[in-house]
Amino acid sequence: SLIHAYPEGYSYTYDFEGNKIDSTFHNQDVLIANDSIFYYEEPYEIIDPFEIGRFITPYGIGFDLGPNGFTYLYDVTDYQDLLMGDVDFAAHNTQELIDVKFAFIKGTPPRDLIKVEKIWGSQASHTYADLDNDVKLPSMDIDLDPNGDMFKIRTRITGHGHNGSNNCCEWGNGSGRDHELLIDGTSRFTWEIWQSTECGDNPNTGQGGTWPYAREGWCPGDKVEDYEFDITPYVTPGTTTAIDYDIQDVPVGDPDQGNGNYVMAMHLVTYGEPNFTNDAAIVDVLNPNSWEYYGKWNPTCQNPRVILKNTGSNTLTSVCIHVWVGGFDNVIADEWTGRLEFLEEEVVEIPVTDDWWYDFQGSLEFSAMVHLPNGQADEY
After folding, report:
1. Fewer beta carbons below 10 Å: N end or C end of the chain?
2. For 66-87, what is the HEC assignment?
3. Is the CB of residue 281 less than 8 Å from the CB of residue 105?
4. Phi and psi of 288, rounded to 5°?
């Protein structure tokens, strides 16, 4: 292909730190031969796909996300081993242009990942009736890794269809159905995936149609929420454990609801023991924040709100939180007390004076830091 390069001179190649590592002299017009790129030739088969996140496309003909698009964040730490080496990565959305970036965070995690595995195979759609009758997702015997110290089941479920008297399994007439996990035959977790207010809270307000209405497990123009369950107290490493899924029965008087369906992905995640005893972290700032996903809360001159997380094995009962804008002048210190078990989170509001924001006009960076978890030195 002929590339018009001007002016005459050198073009440069840079390393990841922005340093020049090579140069090429070119005249005003140069002929550059394209490298050969080999793509899959259809038909091709995707072998053993592993879903690491799910997104629901927005509603609205001609809907415009703006020149900079809209950013969603997924925590894919549990799937890190799947993203090493040569990876075939796909996003099955043909309605918007998708730009995916991965952020690699250097350091020591609260606990090391040992492995992630599928319990019932790849992500799939199952009818409500088949789930109820145990035709799909029956009890599975899983061999637990002897090196594991902590175990979690990660679930991702969305309800679809317009069947029966309540348009099952998307709408449900104002409520969802009970989902249940049994460990070795004993019911341990029951939950709903009904999104009662989340769809209306979505900051993607330019959508059309019924996007603000509640649904079972999903909202247009938003990512699907994962529900996670710690099964560590109920299992023993190195043994075989029976894991079973159950769902609220299809109503006897309305069997057509059984024709609705659920799209499901269920994963078992195995971890090592916690890496820290007394440790805490600020994992997000709700306000002030310029991220468009928090656009309904920002801009703000109200009290800052941060998400505090216990990243140590000891129960967190107290921590000091420092907040400031710009430099370290006029730092506000707030002592939080409460009770957070390992990896539990809580939204903390930091009281500030009415004029505190005005002292920092032109300083646009807000920061928060934790100190002295449980009155002890922060281990990380």
Report:
1. N
2. CCCCCCCCCCCHHHHHHHCCCC
3. no
4. -80, 140
How far apart, in whole angstroms, are the C-alpha atoms of residue 368 and residue 65?
30
For residues 372 and 378, the answer to whether their CB atoms sit within 8 Å is yes
* Opening angle at CA 147, ends 142 and 148, nearest 5: 60
Tokens 């415009």 locate to 64
pLDDT band at 2 (very low <50, low <70, confident <90, very high): very low
Per the CB < 8 A criterion, the answer to whether 276 and 313 are in contact is yes
Specify the residue for token string 């703000």: 300
| Sequence letter at residue 363 | S
At residue 21, the 3 state secondary structure works out as: strand
Q: What is the DSSP letter of 345?
A: E
Give per-residue burial for 250-281: e unless 16+ CB within 10 Å, then b: beeeeeebbbbbbbbbbbbbbbeebbbebbbb
Q: Do the beta carbons of residue 44 and residue 37 sit within 8 Å?
A: no
The residues pairing with 23 across neighbouring beta strands, listed in sequence order, are 12
- Beta pairing class for 150-160 and 261-274: antiparallel
SS3 223: strand
83-120 pLDDT tens trace: 988 888 888 777 778 888 999 888 999 999 999 999 99
**Beta-bridge mates of residue 25:** 10
Burial class (CB in 10 A: 0-12, 13-18, 19+), 198: middle
**What's the pTM value of the predicted model, to 2 decimals?**
0.84
Asked if residue 192 lies in contact with residue 262, where contact means CB atoms within 8 angstroms, the answer is no
What's the pLDDT tens digit per position in 326-344? 777 778 999 999 999 999 9
Instruction: Let me know: does 137 contact 264? Beta carbons within 8 Å.
Output: yes
Q: Which two tokens stand for residue 340?
A: 């957070």
H-type alpha helices, 153-248:
198-201
